[in-house]
Every structure is written in structure tokens, then in C-alpha cells.
Amino acid sequence: MRLTRYTDYAMRVLLYVGAQDDARLSAISEISRAYGVSQNHLMKVVNDLVNAGYLESVRGRFGGVRLARPAAEINVGAVVRHTEEGFELVDCGGCIVAPACGLTGALAEALTAFMQVLDGYSLDDLLKKRRDFAALFGVPEISS
């Protein structure tokens, strides 16, 4: 299974913002520089995460984004479901062997297992080494 770049960027944004002190705002330009990715791409992702209730946005000169809820309440599986358009691993609809093939069922079972694993993690679980994130991003050390 391969997740889209959109999901990758969404998780990167959440990890970056989640690694910050709860009160600190992160600018999209700052996140873009930290990861070396396009600011335009991140703007779309951040807007979506704000609309979905994962991030809170503060406008203005000293604005930015921060988590809209505690990292422990942000489920990784839910974020992936939100950011991915579809989970069809193969197109079995037009295949002539589909009625007799067991691949469809096996792939559905594998996808279910994959998502169950992601459902078992929160953003907080992924941020257990917050101090390491802060050092990697070059931001002030945060309290954990």
C-alpha cells in the first residue's frame, strides 16, 4: 500500500505542530522550510486540516497554526482516512476472473489490518520523543 503525498504532508504538518509547545503558533513558511517542501502544497493541506478540526488557525502578522485538540485525541487512522481519496488497491471491477479470484478478499483483509494498526496510534504516540523533534526542527525545546 502506498499513501499519497497529500497524506504524507498532512502527517508531517501534524507532527511538526504537535512537537511544539501547545501555545506556540507555527507558520506554514516555517513548516515548509523545516521539511524542504513546497509552501503552496502545505497551504492546501493546512487549510484542509483546519477545516477538519485537526488544526486551529490564527490569522495576522504573528499568526500560524497549532493543534485544535490534544495530540492524544488525534487518531492516525482517522487522519489517513480523511486525507486519502480511496483505498482500492487494485481495480477488480473490470477483471474477468474477479468472480473466482480470492485476491479481492485478501487485499480487503490486508487493508483492514493496516487501518486497524493505524487506528491504534494517536499523534501523541508518534511524538514520544518530542525533544528530539524540537532539535531536528531547530525550534526551542519544549516541555513534555
UniProtKB/TrEMBL annotation:
Pfam families: Rrf2. One of its GO terms (cellular component) is cytosol. SUPFAM superfamilies: Winged helix' DNA-binding domain (SSF46785). InterPro entries: TR_Rrf2-type_CS, Tscrpt_reg_Rrf2, WH-like_DNA-bd_sf, WH_DNA-bd_sf. GO terms for molecular function: DNA binding; DNA-binding transcription factor activity. Keywords: DNA-binding. The keyword DNA-binding applies. PANTHER family: HTH-TYPE TRANSCRIPTIONAL REPRESSOR NSRR, WINGED HELIX-TURN-HELIX TRANSCRIPTIONAL REGULATOR, RRF2 FAMILY. This is Rrf2 family nitric oxide-sensitive transcriptional repressor. It comes from Sphingopyxis italica.
